[in-house]
């Protein structure tokens, strides 16, 4: 696996009176933290890239190809949400297998790849458990494993560790860092935590009032030269 560039070209979207317009160029294999006030449009931005929302105008380009007309499953993207990632009646192995085949018709190679992903995320031995028999952190590991076997060059993470305690969150961030090191995918991660961004991200996209108000290197954004609105948001 390797990454792909992601470009949003004058992408417009409205929820009633709430209007958004996004322009962004994400380099291949970079890790981007998407930060900004509550309600500014961060989740909507990821949903537009993934194809769960349809823009009014503009385009989403992945590696230069316009994917705007593609359904979510056709896009070279996988996404992990804060919660509700798993099917409660399916065991760990099958939940991960859905990343490879929606009908769970799995080849021997698929099963080997699933086993490898579960080993990679520290879940070996828990293949036959149901989601209810796992901790919150383990459930998010299953969701990450499914994203891994989907084997797509772009990974979208929408506050995937927000419900976890600080130690577990750090552990999961290290896992994401390791997965990026091993697979080199392009990652866009929504987070409100400055330490998450500083640990993982090459660049920060600051979303404010339905726009990308700043897109700079992480070191710049955490320096005195960062835009005032971002400094106010992080409380510095
Ligand atoms: N299904 C919906 N119907 C109508 N308005 C919505 C819907 N989902 C989101 N919105 C509105 O769109 C705006 C952007 O929402 P979004 O969830 O993208 O924000 P966010 O930056 O991810 O917020 P948070 O940090 O609180 O998760 C908000 O004003 C929100 O109220």
TrEMBL record:
ABC transporter domain ranges (all copies): 1-234
Keyword set includes Magnesium: no
PROSITE patterns in UniProt: ABC_TRANSPORTER_1, ABC_TRANSPORTER_2
Domain of life: Bacteria
One Pfam family matching this protein: ABC_tran
GO molecular function: ATP binding
Key words of the record: ATP-binding, Cell inner membrane, Cell membrane, Membrane, Nucleotide-binding, Translocase, Transport
Similarity-based family: Belongs to the ABC transporter superfamily.
Name of the protein: Thiamine ABC transporter ATP-binding protein
Protein's organism: Aquamicrobium zhengzhouense
């Amino acid at each position: 696996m390797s990454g792909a560039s992601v470009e949003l070209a004058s992408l417009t979207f409205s929820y009633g009176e709430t209007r958004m317009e996004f322009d962004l160029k994400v380099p291949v294999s970079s890790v981007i933290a998407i930060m900004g006030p509550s309600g500014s449009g961060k989740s909507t931005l990821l949903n537009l890239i993934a194809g769960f929302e349809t823009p009014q105008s503009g385009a989403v380009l992945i590696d230069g190809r316009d994917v705007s007309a593609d359904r979510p499953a056709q896009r070279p993207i996988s996404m992990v949400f804060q919660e509700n990632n798993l099917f409660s009646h399916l065991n760990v192995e099958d939940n991960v297998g859905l990343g490879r085949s929606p009908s769970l018709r799995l080849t021997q190679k698929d099963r080997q790849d699933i086993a490898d992903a579960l080993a990679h995320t520290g879940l070996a031995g828990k293949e036959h458990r149901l989601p209810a028999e796992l901790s919150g952190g383990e459930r998010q590991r299953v969701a990450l494993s499914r994203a891994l076997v989907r084997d797509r060059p772009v990974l979208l993470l929408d506050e995937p560790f927000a419900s976890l305690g600080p130690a577990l969150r750090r552990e999961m961030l290290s896992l994401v860092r390791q997965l990026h090191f091993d697979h080199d995918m392009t990652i866009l991660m929504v987070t409100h935590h400055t330490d998450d961004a500083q640990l993982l991200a090459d660049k920060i996209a600051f979303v404010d009032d339905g726009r990308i108000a700043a897109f700079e290197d992480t070191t710049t954004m955490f320096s005195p030269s960062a835009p005032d609105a971002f400094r106010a948001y992080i409380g510095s």
